[in-house]
């Protein structure tokens, strides 16, 4: 890193306008070998200025709509009045399109060894804390993080990038002098040194200084919420509190954490550290500790200990080790989680992941009750790996999925250091971390220095850890391929099923006792070793689970006995236990008008984490139909580590339910799905090719003797999907063929959220029969204007055969997508429709539909309808009130209440998507 900075700031807080007036001087020192023709500044306060900045786009990508709909005055901005040089002449500057980066063009290039000084006058309108928790609160308190203009870092090139709410502004250790004027009734908290404080004319003037600092976070409050805790290592200032524990326990907890870090890392380079609640809330300890206090399963003091441990450890490392936080954040996160795990091992060795819930009689039988607190780290990483959403630890922080940024990558990195410790020896890694910290404190460095430190302290190869573990998204999986029994030994062949090279531990097990443990050096394909045979009943790879393997179920090989893994039957879904073939039982409930409430057991093998092969069998009874019904499926999902085709799914499903009163259907469907995406996992663009054969056998309806009860339809479908908060698009091309008909259709959906908060929703449908040999008056397979017959049994109709009454008013927007019930209802030749809506006020929309319907016997007819839509939860809970259509003014027609349509989604898995889309 080839620059250092002196930053001087005169700042005055103006509570009336929620702004700060700033005069600032920045002195650049060019220590590189390159002349600077331009200089860059980070103006992250201005990233809140409009709805098109990278920060605003990031909020939209995370389905956070609050920023888009907020008033302009609550978003914040920077008003830059002037930039001058040391001779008080204006310098040439401009903002880039991102709005939060400033480019300065010096009059003369800044040569190596020279300094360059600029003076800035500007004001910062502070944003509301509702966006990032930093800014101005509703009570006019101020939490300031990226409140000033900071110099960009030059490291071979300018390391300049926009604010994307990833908490990663890059500044090498610099000198700060800040003179902050605030109203007298306020207090100021900072981890800088307070040089002086004067009061005059109801105003405080506080002079702060900090040497070798990489951030300047300040808290200004009317009522000081911070308390000071003295230790013999440093002074901790914090407003992170737990009312359930005494001040004495709080002080003991802080003292223990600080001494632990001093022992594991080395001396903290500063006298004071500020830990705030807002910083913790932005990066909490995820897990059961976030449950409400009245059901907290952890002992008093443990949650506070973990909260402070995570916050202090992060600040300890970030303030001392100068890494590029956007490009190299993996090392900071890995060290943080590794130290947290060692702390729990030291002071809470028996703490369970479920806390006291592990002893509850309903839960203690579950494998989840056996898991240690530190087992949560590989478990949460596997949550994304099993869904093929893992990302390399070296991925830029702004390119990570929210779940990976906040949770999975740090956990995977920290657990990786435990993997490395078991392989090299715990003391080797511990001493290397301490040496790395002590020798590189307050120095601009890169992660390769950590690798060099480790390699210096061992003779074992470790390059695999940085190439195949850190710098790759390829998962880890080993299996025992073959075992040959010799006289007094066993010849074991171990296979690495992935395209990487990593070491693995091999154990000999006798019941629950470890007979031996051997580490195999990095394997890239197969390796064969000979081990003693005496007393060994089973060979197991990674028995103590120090390696975060993708699949641990193939790690077992019985030397004596019939099964590698015996069967285990459990009530309710559990965390997977790789020692057993697990079968789960769980009650399941459904509802439809004809079967009534449907209850019965679900027998399945799916654990809390996704698996490659799933089976499910749900024999049930309909309490109204008084009949045994149900469904079942076999599904295999193959995840691929490729940029385009990332997943293939094959399966077979069947179901048996009522489709009308005392009438049942059987549906059998073999299917295949090919899923495509690009390499950027944050990009929501996906494509799918679905192939299936739907085979339906229906009971004959005595009231419809001409029906065709049995039929088979081959369905080929292409889906393009790119859902986002601002721009949503989905396109489907669907082809069906059976013995009686062939049809093709296409559907396009588009939603646009404009800058003026107006939302436009447009849906287009067009479908045509290629041939149609069904009877002239039969519309069972025809295109439907407002309520598809659903002959493929895809839709979740609660009363699919109803022609009147409440259940006939259920709306599923498919095919024609109309809301009014018009005639003709069906098209046996072709149909095209356009559905549109726009918001009138918040969740109240006006909608309109128009279309053309062609039937062979009636020709082409035009249809339309209009009305009001109440979108309480878009696509999940909506009401439609028709107003005007081909029928005329519908509120004036009889039985208007029966013309109102509704969308209600009761499927918990579908509703869960409302929340998970913010994380993945």
In words, what does this structure look like?
The protein is an alpha+beta fold and 920 residues long. The chain has an 18-stranded mixed sheet that branches. Strands 4-7-2-1-13-16-15 form a seven-stranded mixed sheet, with no helix packed on it. It has twelve helices and 47 strands. The chain starts with a strand and ends with a helix. 16% of the residues lie in helices and 40% in strands.
Helix % is 10-25%
Mean pLDDT: 92
| CA-atom Rg in angstroms | 32 Å
- Tell me the structural class: alpha+beta
Instruction: List unreliable stretches of 5+ residues.
Output: none
- Strand percentage lies at 35-45%
User: Main sheet, how many strands, which sense, barrel?
Assistant: 18 strands, mixed
Net shape: globular
Name the features:
12 helices, 7-stranded mixed beta sheet, globular, about 15% helix, 18-stranded mixed beta sheet
Question: Helix and strand layout, with pairings?
Answer:
Blueprint: E1 3-14, E2 19-30, E3 39-42, H1 54-61, H2 66-69, E4 77-84, E5 92-95, E6 101-105, E7 115-125, E8 135-136, E9 142-144, E10 150-151, E11 153-155, E12 157-159, E13 174-183, E14 187-190, E15 193-200, E16 203-213, E17 218-221, E18 227-230, E19 235-238, H3 247-264, E20 272-275, H4 277-282, H5 302-320, H6 329-347, H7 376-385, H8 402-424, H9 426-440, H10 448-456, H11 463-470, E21 478-485, E22 489-496, E23 502-510, E24 513-523, E25 526-532, E26 538-541, E27 556-558, E28 567-571, E29 581-592, E30 596-604, E31 613-622, E32 627-639, E33 645-660, E34 663-677, E35 686-698, E36 710-722, E37 727-737, E38 741-753, E39 759-772, E40 783-784, E41 826-827, E42 830-841, E43 844-855, E44 859-873, E45 877-885, E46 888-889, E47 901-904, H12 908-916
Parallel strand pairs: 1-13, 19-20, 28-29
Antiparallel strand pairs: 1-2, 2-7, 3-6, 3-10, 4-7, 5-6, 8-9, 9-17, 11-12, 13-16, 14-17, 15-16, 18-19, 21-22, 22-25, 23-24, 23-26, 26-27, 29-30, 30-31, 31-32, 32-33, 33-34, 34-35, 35-36, 36-37, 37-38, 38-39, 39-42, 40-41, 42-43, 43-44, 44-45, 45-46, 45-47
